[in-house]
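Incident review: delayed structure delivery

Summary: a single-chain prediction request sat in the queue longer than the usual turnaround. Root cause was a stuck worker, restarted by the on-call engineer. No data loss occurred. The affected request and its eventual output are reproduced below so the record is complete for anyone auditing the incident later.

Affected input:
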Amino acid sequence: MDSASEAASPSVNGEVARHPCYSEAAHRYFARMHVPVAPACNIGCHYCNRKFDCVNESRPGVVSELLTPEEAARKAAGVAAQLLQLSVVGIAGPGDPLANPDKTFDTFRRIRSDVPDVTLCLSTNGLNLMKYLDQIVELGIAHVTITINAVDPDIGSQIYGWVYDEESGRKYEGREAASLLISRQLLGLKALSDKGVLVKVNSVLIPGVNDEHMPVLAGMVKRLGAFMHNIMPLIIAPGSRYEQEGRAAPPPKLLHAVQEACGGAGAQIMRHCRQCRADAIGLLGEDRSGDFTWEKLASAPPIDPAARERLQADLEEKVKRLEERQAAKAAAGRKSGSKCACPAAAASGAPAEAAGYRLRAAVASRGEGRVNLHFGYAKEFMVYETDGQNVTFLGIRKVQAYCHGKANCNGDKAATLREIIASLSDCSVLFSAGIGKVPEAKLKAAGIIPVVKPGHIEELILQHAKYDRYLRPRSEAPANPLAGT
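Output delivered after worker restart:
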């Protein structure tokens, strides 16, 4: 392990034990909050159209309302008083926080004063990182995410339409714009890492543009000190240039292959990202922003620091026990000669058993590592793979909820169900806490077995795999292996 990786180890000072985005185990128990105070942006990405908003959408850059720094601090305090597991408050937009420095840092100062026990987090495109490096460190912003989609300007020029540099007062375009942005991003990443700030790099996987380039990018950011690399599937905003060009999101098979390639180079790969809205509140995958309206916050009790600490200390202990169980499984896997495929190994890119039996499962979950959500209310499915002995967490598939979602906002439930089934076409089983007759029949027809059984995710998957292997002839492959991907 090189010095940069060692410095960013999750065991150092427990810096990520309560951060749901930086720890796969922590995201099952701890909540985060994004406060949308930064509307302006200084780069133009071809996949983005910040003019488009839809209440059914969940993607970066989307918000229902903008907040002033005063409102953001008041809302953070009200949420912290009621959502005791809230451990992180971040600013991720809807534009770029460092293109709105006064609002961003004023907000952080107010939250630091009003809710001193939360971790402050910042997400940025990195263009202005060096300019505001000292302020980030002085305010104790210990976690920064930089979105870096390329380290080659020729590739970057296919992703960014323009970059506005406030220092020169000039708008750059094409390769020159990409070159400026990339140089600033890499300088900022190295400087933050040198200052002891944990940096996560987000990269949007764009088929035909940066998919083959991604391992080079992963190696570069790791060498510069990135703690974690989050490779996310492209989400194309309506009205964006990429939509006009007819580009498509990467199929799951490509996303997994790229993650494996980058993890094999030594990068710690994040697989539990939800690509959250800029106003998200709650556990990852469970947005509760609707529960914290101004009317409801008006009757919020005062913050009870002791109660918050008692609960969070208990949750942190659960995180530690989970990580210990994962480590024990990893050790047992190595001892038996098989590769570990637990979530902890998945975070570092370890694949499941290279050959032989494999089963891929989709799971509807509200969190805490359990199957505990009805199929119809799932806005995402967690996808796992097992070789019959170990369970690998592969990632998240975001969908429109069947019971109240809209396929492309057209209200067609049949289309919604088709989209869900298509997104899970490589899975042979789906676990949920309940499912209606229509989706149950459609899943079966697509070769996906619906299993209604609440419980611990890994245990249920292994139980089903044991049953599946017993019934299936050895020469027969699992249903729909990588179908449609």
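Verification: Residues 305-335 form the longest helix (31 residues).
Action items: add queue-age alerting; document worker restart procedure.
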